[in-house]
From TrEMBL:
This is UTRA domain-containing protein. Pfam families: UTRA. It comes from Micromonospora sonneratiae. Residues 28-169 form the UbiC transcription regulator-associated domain.
Amino acid sequence: MTTPRWTNTSDRYVTPGHGDAWANEAAARGRVGTQQLLAVETVRPDRHIRVALDLGDNDQVVVRRRLILEDGRPVERADSYYPAQLAAGTPLAESGKIRGGAIAVLAKLGHTPAASTDHITADKPTEADYELLQVDRQEPILVLYRLSRDANGTPVEYMITRAVARLSAGYTYQTQASV
């Protein structure tokens, strides 16, 4: 008997020194991958994000909201959350592109992601998806939740990505013998 699985690796997205991982991934497919920064805010997160980042009820996060494009076409929107006590006063909390990327900033702070856990689900489009991703009401959206921890096990980044399923690259469907 076989068990079907979706497989992918997020290593290039959570390891410093890989440059713009999305641009590199798109280029490998002969495409141009870019990002548009939509907002950088310090906010009090909802319960789901507080639990993921192991924060108290009154703790805040810095959130970087981005629109991910391939050949100029929106393919996903990504929100990355960082504990404010870690990100405040760093390039993570500033508007604008981060030289070397967010993972490089975490590394400079001594919080290089050492382990990441991805959880992927499917969802119906939200109003923001209609507007930003230009999808219709029946289009499935893949939702990726990624929690990254440093070598001490401290949560350093929680990312929620909402992607147009038909445009998502990098996932391979395979079957594997079940144990």
